[in-house]
Amino acid sequence: MRCDPVPYLADPRGIGGVAEAVAARCSTRAFARSGIETAEAIEVLRLAARAPSGGNMQPWQAYLLGRPAIERVATAIRATGVAPHKAEWDDYRYYPERFFGAYDQRRKALGRALYALLGIERREVRRMRAQFDRNFDFFGAPIGVLLTIDRGLEKGSWIDLGMFVQNVTLLAQERGWGSCVQAAFAPYHRAIRPLVGIGPDEVLVCGIAIGHPDRHDPVNDLRTERAPNAEWLRLVG
To answer: How would you classify the pairing of strands 202-211 and 60-65?
Structure first.
């Protein structure tokens, strides 16, 4: 199923628009050449900062990258010579050491669906890794955002950061843009820090690619399924 944008919502109340944006949002992994004005991206981040925040601490820090900065980051990551499957998650871990149960099944199902769309066979490891490496170029997006959080904060603030990230993706969807949240940058924080000015007290959490989806690239036809309510919802009377 193709991921299609919802029309821009002129109604400032957003009536009906939030549900549409949530339902339509998906990861965009190929972007068109057409750009997005920096001022528009800044406005999205400004609105995203209305995310809920415990104690109104607003723990997120965002670094907005245009194409020249994106290319410098991608070059620095490649220059490390460390392949993603060998990269060390030494600042924080996004995934568990070992996948298990339904979590592992869902992850593998996503991989099979993605590579099937791209015509990549199970044993074509080089092609799989080449596809993953597109992360570091933000999949060709005109705008990249790197998100950090102060390492002195606790897990509650990470929840707040997650809500900020969600706001960014939904606001992008509302405007007919695509987005992709990317954890892939985190293991390369040492290479990225000096390029964008990330301080030692900040943990590089993820990136977000933002731009107009390339409607001709089959990778953007991927639509993941969600588990039925019975797997995760418990009604308590």
So the answer is: unpaired
Rg of the chain (C-alpha set): 18
Three-class SS string for 143-173?
A: EEEEEEEECCCCHHHHHHHHHHHHHHHHHHH
Confirm if 91 and 203 have CB atoms less than 8 A apart.
yes
Q: Distance (Å, rounded) from C-alpha 79 to C-alpha 81?
A: 5
Average pLDDT of the residues of the chain: 93
Identify the bridge partners of residue 22 per DSSP, sorted by sequence position: none
If one counts the domains in the chain, the total is 1
Within-domain flag for 69? yes
Read off the pTM. Answer: 0.92
Residue 12 lies in a domain: no
User: Are the C-beta atoms of 91 and 200 separated by less than 8 Å?
Assistant: no
3-state secondary structure of 200: coil
